[in-house]
Design brief:
Layout: E1 6-10, E2 15-21, E3 26-32, H1 43-82, H2 92-150, H3 165-179
Antiparallel strand pairs: 1-2, 2-3
Amino acid sequence: MIGEPIFNYNKHRGTTICTISDGQNTFVGTAKCHPDDWDCVNEFTGCEIAERRCKIKILQHIKNNQIIPQIQAYEHLISTMISSKQLNPQSYEFKRIKAEYDNLLAQYTTIKEKIKNSQNELREYLANREKVNKFIRLKKSKEKEKLFQDLGITLTNPDGTFRSTGEVLEDLSKNWNGQK
């Protein structure tokens, strides 16, 4: 049985670790804040990303360590049975084994799709988070630009490019000296 996620969030490093255990195995998902996103870092986003990554690892573990070995065992059993001269393909036992094998193949297909969907959902979540972060940065940028405009200083040239730091500081100095 898979336990509840345990989170370790480190604001100073911008990292979140999600740990989930099933009693025998421990799965770890991590999230690290991108350097460009430090102004938007928050615990909820880190936990969400780390937990999604951890759950993808759990699904991959189930596929690789439970379903695939069972499929291989059934394939070996069926192969051995087929090579026997005493096999009765109409027997209840053979039909039951074949049904279990088909069920495992269906589980394999389902878990592969679930892994793929989970990875796609994580990519979509990250892309949407990036859109939100860009919006927040744009809003903050406009607020800063308004602050400079209130001081009588423009941050951009008429062609839309940003003015150099030296030019802005020179205007600030002139503005400051003019206010004295």
